[in-house]
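hey so i finaly got around to running the thing on Beta-glucosidase from Yinghuangia soli. pasting the sequence first so u can double check i didnt mess up the copy paste, my clipboard has been acting weird all day
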Amino acid sequence: MSVSYVSPGTPPRFPASFVWGAATAAYQIEGAADADGKGPSIWDTFVRRPGAIRDGHTGDSACDHYHRFGEDVALMRELGLDAYRFSLSWPRVLPAGTGKVEPRGLDFYDRLVDALLAAGITPTPTLFHWDLPQALEDEGGWMERETAYRFAEFASVAAERLGDRVKRWITLNEPFVHMVFGYAFGTHAPGRTLMLDALPVAHHQLLGHGLAAAAVRAAVPDAQILLSNNCTPVRLLPEDRGDADQAAAAAYDALHNRLFNDPLLLGSYPDLSAFGMADPAWGGVVRDGDLATIAAPLDGLGINYYNPTWITAPADPAAGLPFDIVEPGEPYRRTAFGWPVVPDGLAELLTGLRARYGDALPPVWITENGCSEPAGLQDDARIDYLAGHIGAVAQAMEQGVDVRGYFTWSLVDNFEWAEGYHQRFGLVEVDFATQTRTPRASFAWYRDLIAAQRP
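ok and heres what it spat out for the 3d tokens, dont ask me to read them lol
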């Protein structure tokens, strides 16, 4: 079936050095869940919990990228990508999370990196995209400080093997989301429901970032180190109630955005007293020297953006949280996931980061941005989404934000966590029964946009 697209307008021009990419994650695409000595991750365990995943789907086969990566790299070459963001499966490399290395896991990433480089595509691996080895979760997971040190061990193993060819590394993906959905609410792996008691997960992930960054730099002195945070502009309803809503918005901003940006860029945590954390050491969780480790200079800050968050003061303060998340006060087009499409929120976010952190803000990379749309090849809504958000990046750059690259989510349809295979984010449609890949109209649009940016 052929597809066509209607251009939503002439795209802006970006600098010749601007990097165009696409992103995926290991558990969401690799499949081969127990192949070649891979150990179980928390997601391999969680998907077998009754009712955890829509329709009982699992990532056991996913897109079978483990065996079909050559086909996927060929698609990337056709797109004209400058870079590809993927993640390394920690339990594929260290099945128990520590100790014995599985050489066949490293061999897979060796082959992938070599194939990317042969295609002229810069490999950009993420070290942790939520698939913690189950053996470490059995010891307490990210609630335990020791996990940060085991993460540094994994980073060292990966960097020593791949660092002769891989120079740009991302340590963590969306530590906020992993903490909240995985440890506070239990809707993602590992499925724990600790609510505010999950806050140590934030610090231990950030400490793991700092330790892993040092480990990578020890193995790869010319490495570029990033961390990818999911950030959101916090908005009030038009009829906000003044001080109460303003305080609620500030509390949410502290939890979602500043908790994971301030330590990296300022070397301190924001005021968390609204969450009962008046002690700056969090009752001994934060130890001497930790913040200096976390705040070692970054070469870039990855930003994953999907939509703003609207906040009001809590209707029931006794419920425990100092805010309520509410629907926006005006209509927006919705993605298939039900998320509002708000391109100007990305420009608002980027310029807000520049205003808040000033010279402390390193170069920014958009490491995820994309949308789920209904299955099918003629995905004009996705083209409109991408065009609007890429335009918002250009707008922020015109206002002085140093943005170095854009990675759309995602290259291919994949296993979308608790939604299983029901949400389709790919530029490429995947028939999960046959593993057939078919480029969508958005693939052609993104390919042509990249080609038009070439000198």
